[in-house]
Design brief:
By secondary structure, this protein is of the alpha+beta class. It is built from 2 helices and 2 strands.
Amino acid sequence: MLREKGVKAIGYVHTKHGWPAGYNAYRKIEEVILDINAYDNEYDIDGIFVDETTALWPDAAFDSASQAITYYGNLL
């Protein structure tokens, strides 16, 4: 129905662990890829929204630019 109206279907995945630990660790990349594939297989999505990318550099002790580039690069 969305596409009939010209709307794109976008899936959503979260990439960090949240409460109660806080956003201080990445989810396993394999889990994120499984989530993306599930959206694509179930809904034939037009894209994916990857949430919780960091904006804390260089202040986040658990994160760095090189970690994020490697992690998110594996999603391409």
